[in-house]
């Protein structure tokens, strides 16, 4: 009873409550009308892709959150989008199939997480009890010790009177021997580690344990969710080859004073977003703008390679690296759909590269609400965007591909083509062959 009271005082949630808080957090997804519904459908597929990675890695709370977000988004929220009616039937049916795949997974995870939360909670209560027992024992010993000291004082008065010296002896009872059954770490230090994706603690167990210490989560807005999918928390890893390959590919355009743009795509691994591909779509560029065309081709390519959209990259042939007003608007939907999405700007003339995001607390919503188009002035204070430091763990350099097509002299991976829809197959074959004969021809300049 005492333990239960302490748990409540500490704000420790009971298992059911904790699960409910996690579910509520997952449902707090909002639709932004400035992002076309089609992009939500694309992003939904990537959301499931990421959730599956979390599931494989044993990061069950993160997987559950993403599956729940996906369901909230497509069972409920997307219908409120003003352009919902414009979503093609094919996108809807692909989405329906995903929902059927996700639903049982989320249900299973829910049961599993509740079990785990219950275990953690019970373990916590047991420890509180244990601590109480130790405290009582300590107090008992302290009282005994005081009693002995009192006795010793009386005795010493007697011995001193006979001319002997009373030497205090160490009290063995004062030495605390830890209970071998008690948890090894001091309870105060045992929290939920930040890294939910840590390897399973029991190597022998087939189902990895999500035991991350003994203290269950207090609320999802504090310790538990600190490692969940939240804005800005995941690191984006950008190998330096992303820029060097992209600059090589865009050289011809740069020489002609035309911008080049590419999509940054990659994978989720241990809660890091790693850029593994730059995809150069068919595009139209001017000295200060660049527009992608046939985006379906990019999507097909990403689907074939299980890639997640991590942002975009473009050149400023004659200017420095910054985000123009048009760039801010181009970047906005990327970041609304993926909070970590970055915009890389390469300014070869100034040998400068910038890594940018819209300021999450201000710029993102400001630009989402700005309805102007073309180049137009924005207020600069507070700042709408900010620079990010490039992160690279060094290991990803060798895995990076500037479109894997470069490695294949005859065209894209044959498996890609086999999987493509028949009506796109022909045009893609032609385009990819052109790209593969010589990588540079993959840039469409005017
Ligand atoms: Zn720009
Ligand atoms: Zn604007």
Write up this protein.
The chain starts with a helix and ends in a 9-residue tail after the last helix. It contains eleven helices and nine strands. It has 446 residues and is of the alpha+beta class. The chain folds into two domains: 1-228, Methane Monooxygenase Hydroxylase, Chain G, domain 1 (Up-down Bundle), CATH 1.20.58; 235-442, 3-Layer(aba) Sandwich (Cytidine Deaminase, domain 2). 44% of the residues lie in helices and 12% in strands. The strands form two sheets. Strands 1-3-2-6-7-8-9 form a seven-stranded mixed beta sheet. Bound molecules: zinc ion (2 copies).
What is the topology?
Blueprint: H1 2-9, H2 15-27, H3 37-56, H4 60-75, H5 89-160, E1 235-237, H6 241-255, E2 261-269, E3 272-279, E4 283-286, E5 289-292, H7 295-304, E6 308-315, H8 325-337, E7 342-347, E8 352-358, H9 363-369, E9 385-387, H10 414-419, H11 422-437
Parallel strand pairs: 1-3, 6-7
Antiparallel strand pairs: 2-3, 2-6, 4-5, 7-8, 8-9
Bound molecules: zinc ion (2 copies).
Short description:
Helix content is 44%, strand content 12%. The chain is α+β, with helices and mostly antiparallel strands and 446 residues long.
Could you state the CATH homologous superfamily of the largest domain? Answer: Phosphotransferase system, lactose/cellobiose-type IIA subunit
CATH architecture level-2 label of the largest domain: Up-down Bundle
The residue ranges in which pLDDT falls below 50 over 5 or more consecutive positions are 182-214, 219-232, 404-446
What ligands does this structure carry?
zinc ion
Order of helices and strands: HHHHHEHEEEEHEHEEHEHH
Mean pLDDT: 78
Overall 3D shape: elongated
What is the CATH topology of the largest domain? Answer: Methane Monooxygenase Hydroxylase, Chain G, domain 1
Number of domains: 2
Q: Output the strand order for the largest sheet.
A: 1-3-2-6-7-8-9
Quaternary assembly: single chain
What is the CATH level 1 assignment of the largest domain?
A: Mainly Alpha
Q: Which radius of gyration do the C-alpha atoms yield?
A: 30 Å
The percent range for helix content is 40-55%
According to DSSP, the number of beta strands is: 9
Strand content: 5-15%
The major pleated sheet works out as: 7 strands, mixed
